[in-house]
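Section 4.2 – Deliverable D4.2 (structural model, holo form)

The reporting period included a commitment to supply a predicted holo structure for the target in complex with magnesium ion. Inputs used:
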Amino acid sequence: MSTIIEIRDLIKVYRTSSTEVIALRGLDLSVEEGEIVAVMGPSGCGKTTMLNIVGGLDRPTAGRIIVDNMQIEKLSDKDLYDYRLYKIGFVFQFFNLMNSISAEENVELPMQLAGIRSSERKRRVAELLEMVGMSKRAKHKPVQMSGGEQQRVAIAVALANNPKVILADEPTGELDKKTGYEILELFRKLKEKYGKTLVIVTHDHRVSNIVDRTVFIEDGKIIGSLDGKETKDMFSKIEEKHLNELSKSVSDKLSDKLNEKSIKNEMGVKNEKSIKDGIRDENEDNGEKIEKEKKFRESVERSLKGGVE
Ligand SMILES: Nc1ncnc2c1ncn2[C@@H]1O[C@H](COP(=O)(O)OP(=O)(O)OP(=O)(O)O)[C@@H](O)[C@H]1O
Ligand SMILES: [Mg+2]
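Output (structure tokens):
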């Protein structure tokens, strides 16, 4: 596998005449081709900001972003427009379809912008609507479709010019449980059948069924990650319990797992005994590590609480 997205030391500062918000403060992330990566973190931590910059919807203040061998922070406005049109598919929380035109016309639009000829467009629209299970709604306008149906069409729109990378910002946030699950299964198909790379910002714990990795952001930086199996183990425990029962004991168990992993991975502590000792004795000189770990744990818990129904 090769790296398709590489983000290094990404900084984004939003300035107005009176205020300054540092939304990203040195974020690093690499994504391999064909990977599904979930991005989680508390509200306001910078998830959308990061996704918008990777997708060429916004410009970074500093840092380097390479997507499919293109260094995107250096692109001119025209090249950035082409990048968005050809290289990236965006899926948003609120479906983002044009309300005045039909499903098939929505899917056709990015191809028109790309100058694809009519017969090829028609063929591909039919293929994409079939792929997302929406052939029967081709003539419907967005208001005549359910939320889940609109999101399927929005995914077909995102795929119109066959991008390698799909970026999704809370794609199941507006959908009921069953429909959200179906959308995630569709994402899985995009990876497995079509080799797409997906970065999905979400609070939805069901994403654990499809991800290769979950990264956690806090305060504009990645603070840790779990691989696919660890994500699944962690979230399957939560699924068993209703939000009210998300008891301390469960979060403690999850925290222990995270403690061990992130301390091992991030701080280079190899010996399990020393990890446990380290956690037990906050007075020792690994206090800083514990503080960092604690923040990670708290952030994960906040992300999860945001997503459990
Ligand atoms: N255009 C903007 N101008 C000023 N500040 C902004 C702008 N967009 C985002 N911010 C600020 O940047 C920070 C990160 O915002 P961002 O939208 O990336 O958060 P998020 O992690 O996506 O949150 P949520 O989970 O609520 O969607 C927040 O403090 C936000 O208020
Ligand atoms: Mg957001």
